[in-house]
Amino acid sequence: MTMPAQSRPDRYNQLKRRALEIFEHDNWLTPPAWAVLAGFYPTRSAYSYLLRLHRFGLLDRTAHRGAIAYRLSTRGKLRLAWLKQTLRS
Fold this sequence. Notes:
Blueprint: H1 7-25, H2 31-38, H3 45-55, E1 59-64, E2 67-72, H4 74-86
Antiparallel strand pairs: 1-2
Helix pairs in contact: 1-4
């Protein structure tokens, strides 16, 4: 059974909001550290999800002590503010 088309974007935006809110409180996070805070499982999939957010311009990315780390970008802060206003919960 498929979801109605209207509810799909809300689900994706809620995940994006939750993902970005975690970066709002922490500076640089590795994908496994972020996955634990977000309750995002399997942890390995955090690498591809955060890379996607980086490609959207919502996260900054760097190599940090031999690992990839992300933080909220300026565009990500603007998108998070918009999501908070749009998805009142």
